Amino acid sequence: MFQLIGRMGRWLTFDGTGAPTEMTLRQHLDELRARALRILICVTAITFFSIIFGFKPFQFNGFVLYLPFPDLFHNFAIQITAFMQAALLPAGVRLIQTSPGQAFVAQLYVGCLVGVIGSMPVVIKEIYGFIGPAFDRRSKRAGVKSIFLPTIALFMAGIVFSYVTVIPLALAFLYKWGQSLGVETFLNINDFITFVLQFFLGFGIAFELPMIMYALSLTELIEPKFWRHNFRYAIIILVIFGAIITPDGSGLTMWLVAAPMVALYAAAMVAIERKAARRAEIYTGP
After folding, report:
1. Helix (H, G, I), strand (E, B) or coil at 93
2. DSSP code of residue 285
3. Radius of gyration (Cα) for the chain, nearest Å?
């Protein structure tokens, strides 16, 4: 761990001749600020677009095209909220707002989610650009294929998995208790949006676990066998992580988060060990 911290503290950047030079702490902070600013600008631009513009169908030569059109009351965030309401809420459950402005705040939340998801390519690019000097040249050349694209794909896979499987199952399970009592079920729109966003972001981040493990292994400061030797401790940590990011205390959703993460951990562990074995065969030769 101390070696990793030391390596991270000595980022190397390359000049035009390919000779490595060591950056000062101030240069690191300036680079980090510039990259964070680019991410913030991208997220903000997409967020404002989603709460100002909506997509409307237009006929063109017999084809239906959905084009952006400025409409504050039928914007993209509202369209997404309506779609989630129809697809995720159990039958008989209605969304309500108990004070003025709650629906507007909910649309801001959805707009921010759209901004984060839409900015993921930029976010991953900037993060990889900042930590890239910690990798060797071979790992950097394979960066787009082995890190950049899989990171985006896993984040989206986590969101899709939560949307298709976890959220409908969790909502149906929790609201069956209300049905068993014969009570009318209403759900505050802010609570619903917060519930959904927690799952989206939680699963999106959770599904990045294999890439985190792979990136740490690329630094060659953590041996491939480290992940197998600490598998039992990883299970405990992942269960605790599932309990933290799930918004209810039923215990069901905690395992819906922890179980896929344990499976992803095991898959990443096997992939890292196989890659290390192939690399060892190449170095040792026939």
Report:
1. coil
2. -
3. 23
Q: How far apart are CA 253 and CA 216, in angstroms?
A: 29
pLDDT band at 252 (very low <50, low <70, confident <90, very high): confident
Burial 234-255 (b: 16+ CB within 10 A, else e): beeebbebbeebbeeeeeebbe
Find the mean pLDDT for residues 275-285: 71
Rounded to whole angstroms, the Cα distance separating 109 from 200 reads 12
Residue whose structure tokens are 């503290």: 9
Give the residue carrying structure tokens 């298709």: 164
Q: Kindly report the pTM of this predicted structure.
A: 0.76
- Alpha-carbon distance of 132 to 130, in angstroms, equals 6
CB of 94 within 8 A of CB of 189?
A: no
Residues whose CB falls within 8 Å of the CB of residue 53, separated by 6 or more in sequence, listed in order:
68, 69, 70, 71, 75, 76
